[in-house]
Structure formats: structure tokens, C-alpha cells
Amino acid sequence: MKLSRHLRDNVRRLRAVYSDCSDVIFHELRIGGHTPAMLVFIEGMIMLEELDQQVIAPLRDGPGPGPSLEDVRSRTAVASIRTVSTLNELLDEIADGHPVLLVDGLEAALVYGLSHWEQRSVEEPTAESVLRGPREGFIESLRTNIAMLRRKIRSPKLKVITFRLGSQSRTPIAVIYMEGAAAPALVREVLSRLNRIEITDVLETAYIEEWIEDNRFSPFPQLLSTERPDVAASYLVEGHVVIMVEGTPTVLVAPATFFSLLQTPEDYYERYVVGTAIRWLRYFFFAISLLGPSLYVAVVTFHQEMIPTTLMLTMARSREQIPFTALMEAFLMETMFEALREAGARLPKQIGSAVSIVGALVIGQAAISAGIVSAPMVMVVAITGIASFMAPRYTIGIPIRLLRFPIMFLAGMMGLLGVILGVIAILIHLLQLRSFGVPYMSPLAPIQKHGLKDVLFRAPRWNLNRRS
Q1: Alpha-carbon separation of residue 51 from 98, 99, 115, 155, 258 (angstroms)
Q2: Residue 86 in contact with residue 97, Cβ under 8 Å?
Q3: What confidence tens digit (pLDDT) does each residue in 389-404 have?
Q4: What are the sequence ranges of the domains in the chain?
């Protein structure tokens, strides 16, 4: 709907839209003492002192306005002034915290870039802390997050496309990529999937993540999420696309591969020998977190001959009073461990870690004393829990925690054969998975020789000069 030349018509429409909104201020003034005008803004979202000094005072005390909008624009000393001509654009600018000026006789409105509200200071992300590297993380302001990326990448090839999603929330979204590095087809596909989203509100990147994934029913994440500007910048120069949402510090990186979800910033901030050793340790314990209880259940239930005799006798003595099978033991302990983990994450930070640690120790010792579970099973579950904490990203740790249970049941029914069948089923699913058309297991499947230097080991810095 186009704005009217008559001020009273525009004000009537705005008052109808913002009925029962006491925080929306309609400030009447006369420009040069003659021409009626109206300033509309949301209280608490603008720099009120600068609005008085830079906009209201010059307009009110100056001479009468000329016949055009440019004459009104020239009277104020605000650096950022935009012009809108439709009601929808006007409502979006007011919702963003910008004061708008409507002048009688003009079919457009002036938008002053004076928005301001309280926001969290830049600090290190708690979920992605590093021993060596930058200590800054994204915050809930989209403009601040884009500026942090601009500070990392000062090239004019860094392109930012902004638009809005959500019929009610009208949330600003930013799609960021490096021109010449990101494939044009990838950028078009990302924009196409975002534009096809039909949703009422977008409050976090998770709201749109499920809409744009290739396989919405897969437990594995097909986009990488991060709160670190250095991680987002590194993926941008490699040709990935970053998606930002106003109101959340978490950004999405597309496409993502299985191995990129297992990498950390410290892999590149340490020397390549150290980075490679830590990466192999991470891969090993990642496999332990998936298969640890299943292998124990399979060996104890079906393949006792694989255990040394002395150890087997010790395990038999510890299990002689246990009324449950190894499978039921593992299921009970894993369920209790997951409950303690979630309880520790939801409790206040001051007591969450203490409750989870003390709870695990007390419940484990009490279960052994009561003869419900055996000591080896408690040790296996504890090692599995520690191994799961080595997952560098929370999103890749969740599917491993979920898949641990079906593989455990397969091990209890078929032994090592069940474990092998479960692993094969997971590998088949991973090999079929795509992230914006990119094979999820690349560069191992299909093999890409230039990408192998940053998968199984971290090559020296002088060899990491080619984009994947």
C-alpha cells in the first residue's frame, strides 16, 4: 500500500495498526512552524537525545520546508537517512527501532538511523571455548555480527544479502558469502530454499534449519552451527555460505560435511603435529562414544572367549549377584547417565556440574552396592560418557547419543554381528546423505585427493592453500 500525500490518512492507518500499543509514540511537530509533520517511533528502541537534537530541533526551528523530500532531508545532521514509500516498508522500519518522519503533502517518509537498544557485550562462547585463539563470539545483534565478520574479512568481495522471514516476526535474515569463492549455484540454492519457507515467526536459526536441510528426517545435522566469528570467516573464504538471524548468536554454515563437524578451531591454531594427534584422539573416542556399551554387551553375552581368562573370572564374580542381563544393565545405566547429563545442563551453572558429577558417583556406587549393576558396566558407561564429551559440537553429539541405544539392542540380540549390521546401516545412511548437494562423507566418499590433507590429518599450513 502506497503512502498518501495527506498526513492525516497516513497517521490514521498507523494508529489503526498500532492500536493498544502504548510504547509507540506519535510526536506531532510543525516544520519551520508551518508544515504539519509526524514522528513515529517505539519508545526504548531509539537514541532519544540525538532525536531531539539532530531531528526535532532543526526541523522545528528552521525556516519553512521546500517542495521536495530532499529539502526536508537536508535540514537534519543524521548520517543515515532512507526513504520509504509503502506502508509495509514503514512498519518494518518502525519495528527495527528507527524513527520515521511523515510530512503533509509528501508521498514518502524519511527513516532516520537512530535505533538503539540494550544488548549483550561481546564475550567468548561458552560452548566453543579454546585455549589458543580469539576470545570473541557472536551476539544477538545482526548488525554487530556482520561487522565482526567484516573485521575478519576486509575484502569487498564479502557480500551480504538481507531480507525478512516470518509473516508475524518479520525477522531480518542475512546470507553472507565470498564472491569468487562460493559457487554461484550454491548461493542461488540457499536463497531459493530460504525464500520458499512459509513460517509465522523466526526466533532462532533452528527455526529455519529444518526447512532447508536436504534430509529432514536424518538425525545427523546437515548444517554447521557456530558462535565464533573466526570459524564463520574461515568457512567463508573456503567457499561456504553463512546464514545469520537477528536475535541469536548462532549462525549456520552451508554446506556441512561429517568431518567438518568433528573439527575445532584449535586444530588450526596449534602446530600441525599437535593438531593431527588431537584429531586422531577425537576420532577414536568418538567411535568409543557410539560403540562402547554395545561392544561390552556383545562380548559379555555372546563372545566370552574373546576376554582373557583372568579378566573373565573377575567379571563373572562381579556379575554373579546381578539379576539383569548385560543388555538391561547397559540400558539402565545409559538412561540414568543421559538423565543426569540433561539435569546438569538445565540446572543453574553454579550447581549443575556439581549435581551431575556427585549424582553419577552416588548412583553408580549405590547401584553396585545394591547388586543392580556390576562394576565393569559402570566403568564402561563412565568411559562412554567421557568419550561423548569429546564431540567438538553439541549437534553432532546428539545423534551419537540416540544411535547408541539401537546398536546396543542389536548387540544384545546378535552379538558382534548386530554391532556390525548397525554400523553398516549408519554408514549407508551417511553415504546417501547430502548437504546442499555436497556428499556428507566427502572428501572420503567420493575421494577428493586435495581434501584429504585436512581430514585424517591436518596438513602443514603451507599445504592448506586450496579451497575444498
Answers
A1: 10, 8, 10, 34, 51
A2: no
A3: 888 888 898 999 899 9
A4: 7-112, 126-256, 283-449
